[in-house]
Amino acid sequence: MKSYTSKQRKTGKILSGSILLIVSASPAVFGTDTTINQRTVVSTGSTYTLTANPGDTITVTAPSIGGSTSGGAMLVSGNGILNATGSISYSDNHVTGSGNGGAIGASSGTALNFTGDISFLNNTSSNAGGALFSNGASTIFNGNVILTNNVSRTTGGAFYLNNHNLTINGTLSASLNRTTTPSSGGAIFALTGSVTISSSVTMDGNSGANGGAIWSELGIRLAETVGSGNVSLTNNLGTGNGGAIYSNNGGLILGNTGGTLTLTGNQSLSSGGISNTGYAAILRGSTITVNNNRATGNGGSLYVEAGGASIGNAGSTLSITGNSSDSGSGGFSYTADGGTVTVSGRNIEIRNNTAVSGTGGVFRTGGSFTLNLDTGGTLVSSGNKAAGNTDGGFLYANRGNITFNIGDGAIASVGDQNSLANGTDSISAAAGVNLYKEGTGTLVLAAANTYSGTTYAEAGTLQIDGSIAGGADVSKSATLQGTGLVSGNTIVNGTLAPGNGIGSINFGNNLTLTNTAKVQIEIDHSNINQILNDMINVAGILNLGEATLNIDLDALKYYADGSMITILTANELTGEWGSGNTYTDTLQRTWTFGFEHGAGVLSQTPLNPIPEPSYFTALFGGAVAMALLLRRKRK
Questions:
Q1: 486 strand-pairing partners
Q2: pTM strictly above 0.85
Q3: Less Cβ crowding at N or C end of the chain, within 10 Å?
Q4: With 70 as the cut, is the pLDDT of residue 616 above it?
Q5: How far apart are CA 94 and CA 89, in angstroms?
């Protein structure tokens, strides 16, 4: 049975009238590019089915309503059900009074079931939910959703949901949705509910208070299933926390390991281009691009108040560039106390991120920091700056430990040749935070790092071209090299190889070599007029500890007879070389190590020594005496 508050008439492809009232079961409108210019009320126990034929679109555009009425085009109340199938567009519907839901309003116990391509365009509400207001209704989209230019005065520029989850089993495209107060959730606001979108998500130019694009109390999951699509959040504005997303609880998952994740140009006038206040935040993708996001407070791109953050995955290509925190910490990311950060990928580029007046130009962690670089991968990090060099241009860790796990053949460079002069790319930490270099690849520290804990080289190569404020502990399977400064006491059980090529490595305190240590001294004889060699400079005590000295014996042949080569300096030398103090080059010349006046020198003993002057004097005197004797005998 159907009843109407006014006569309905069908004129071509237009259904018009003031209200279509559904009081019992299941009338259906089948669309052939139909426009519905009337408001529909689905009452208690009724089901309204709206179906568009394949290839056709139904457009729902009702007259504006005022007062306290909700649902400009449709109100679903009691236990009513809406089934909308096919290509359906809710366009230019408006609630001008104190009601909610510019296009659709639904109360508790109702169900909104959408299947197909559903769009909400240019709808407005003078209260909450510019397009859709769902107060406890089950709201499920099995298909693709488009939200464009929907506006609410309060929360939920396009969608407002309360006491129920929003599920979209398809794609979402949301652009230019906004709240005008401003209030939270520029495009989507989910109170006591979660937001799950199974496939690709594109959100651009949305604006609100907390959560310029999405605000959710119980978690957000976007395209989390492998192969389900891509996530792009661009140019969204939050006048509070979360320029693009605010997840109040329940955690946050953006992207999947096979898709792309793009976070670009989002801005928060408080904290976080993305703000997550409960549980972990997980950002995944085969390619992850996080560029030019900005927060006035903490976390230019990502703010995590409770829990940690995981960024990237095995095989990821990451670009983290140009993000900034204007008056807080963490130019890219900020995790509150106890919050760990794990960064993973194969090719990682981190450049020109800034914490203008705080700590952590790229990362500020409240707990441990771990970076995992795949086999054969690269990390390039340069131009990252905090308020001061001691504030950590690359990283500030407030507690826990710092770990770089560098895969075989991979090279991770934190800083470059300009970092020392520019005061960029440093690693800083609270007292008691240590750094661990793991994996068989190479970690290069090129900045003036101010963390005071110990640096443990567990495997692979640690190359210090800048400086570290603490000491180092090098295991038997690791190599320490570079041209920089290790300020604290250092113990080497593995390999010490000054320079990267020919160069000098410096120790600001004591250096202890053990009997498993190997010292590699290279010689460059490419310019025979200026032969160069590696150097070790120790400001304190150098204990040789029966370590092995390895020097290029063949290269020694290029030195002239009687040469002396300085291979180390120290304030004091103790112990002996386990390899002895004498070495024979390929010309069978003997070189002897000695230490005098603060220098450790290899001296070559000539094969044909030049006689002393006294020898020539004695020889000449003897010859003269013999000549005189022979002369006397002739006489």
A1: 468, 507
A2: yes
A3: C
A4: no
A5: 14
